[in-house]
Design goal:
Order of helices and strands: EEHEEEEHEEEEHHHHHHHHHH
Radius of gyration: 24 Å
Strand order of the largest sheet: 3-4-5-6-10-9-8-7
Strand content: 15-25%
Number of helices: 12
Helix content: 25-40%
Distance between the termini: 59 Å
Shape: elongated
């Protein structure tokens, strides 16, 4: 499996991707990472975003067992029946979409024969290093330094948990997931580490309670938020605002306790209603988001856009003004402010268009708006 990696994302696309343990959604830009080329064949008979009926055509009922995974389902193939010779788990959301997979090697998989994957690791800096006790590990030491590596492509993340020295590495787990679900598929999650420390039917290794991340927010809320992002941002095919709206509403109902998560869920639900043309509902959700977490420029700008669509120009200008005061280099809000001001205050509109152009110079993604801004500047100066 060869997956080129390019971590050049927009902040919006990364909103549900760069999630840190114990924190809410946070927009950021990931560093460029080397390609995740590998000669270790995993996910051979399936692919992320595959539908469950298609998956089941390739895997007879006798080859796997299933159990609930939040609102979705986990299908498990034991090592004796798997192509990888590892314990394979495939995770489907409630819509029957494959959103992640986990491969576990309780006895360890020697990576000596896999020179391409070892070279990939040599180009990556571990995202985490720790000591891990594995009960079945067939190496000289039962407790050795472990490292977590992360790479992937534009829409998915691959993570490898390895143990041993750089010269002699052993694979313990590998996970694959579409990016909105990355928080739920880290091999460092305690529930996944326990599959190594205490495999089914075996005496577990020493438990170190401080090891392994755990969610501070309800699992169902996190899972539904990821489902909403997947549908809203078209990670698996086209955008589906019906699924997104259902998911965000369920994520809120499941009980986020952190106000950052809760505010962002209302924000995303508002954007979903806007996309469906239900502007009053969109306005209500965006106002709710700001009531929970005031003065967020993105939410203010998006609320301004909804005000425009409702014909509430004065209110829209107020939102755009506040957004650019809080974030002076917020180019899109500057553009929106210019358009809102143009009918009544062309001088101010001209200034905002010029500021917008200065902010987006050299950014190809903004060329369409930049072209329109130049046309408006030409018209306003005549």
């Amino acid at each position: 499996m060869s997956i080129p990696r390019s971590y050049i994302y927009s902040a919006g696309l990364l909103l549900a991707v760069s999630l840190t343990i114990g924190c809410g959604p946070k927009a950021s830009i990931r560093p460029k990472l080397p390609p995740s080329e590998t000669d270790l064949v995993l996910l051979k008979s399936t692919a992320l975003c595959e539908r469950k009926p298609e998956f089941l055509k390739k895997h007879a009922p006798a080859t796997h067992t299933s159990r609930a995974w939040g609102s979705g389902q986990e299908l498990m193939i034991p090592s004796g029946k798997s192509v990888s010779q590892g314990e394979e788990s495939y995770f489907f959301d409630e819509d029957g979409l494959l959103v992640g997979a986990l491969f576990t090697f309780p006895r360890g998989l020697d990576l000596e024969p896999y020179s391409v994957l070892r070279r990939t690791f040599s180009l990556l800096k571990p995202s985490l290093e720790f000591y891990l006790n594995v009960s079945q590990l067939e190496t000289r030491a039962n407790m050795d330094t472990s490292a977590l590596y992360e790479t992937g492509d534009e829409k998915s993340t691959t993570q490898y948990l390895v143990t041993g020295s750089r010269e002699h590495q052993t694979l313990l787990q590998a996970s694959f997931t579409i990016d909105p679900y990355v928080r739920l598929f880290s091999p460092y999650r305690r529930e996944f580490l326990d599959r190594l420390r205490n495999p089914t039917g075996e005496k577990g290794g020493q438990k170190i309670e401080s090891q392994g991340s755990e969610d501070k927010e309800p699992f169902l809320s996190l899972q539904q938020f990821a489902r909403g992002q997947t549908a809203q941002l078209a990670y698996c095919g086209g955008k589906n605002y019906d699924v997104a709206g259902d998911a965000y509403q369920k994520s809120i109902a499941s009980g986020f306790t952190n106000k950052v998560w809760l505010a962002e869920a209302h924000h995303k639900l508002g954007l979903t209603w806007e996309a469906k043309g239900q502007f009053d509902k969109a306005k209500a959700e965006l106002l709710q988001s700001l009531a929970i977490r005031p003065n967020i420029p993105d939410v203010l700008n998006n609320l301004g856009t909804v005000h425009v669509k409702l014909g509430e120009t004065t209110a829209a200008i107020g939102m755009f003004e506040k957004a650019v005061i809080l974030r002076p280099n917020y180019a899109v809000a500057r553009y929106n402010l210019a358009e809102a001001y143009e009918p009544t205050n062309p001088k101010r509109a001209l200034a905002e268009y010029e500021t917008f152009l200065a902010l987006v110079e050299g950014i190809p993604e903004e060329e369409a708006r930049a072209t329109h801004a130049r046309e408006r500047i030409k018209a306003l100066t005549h």
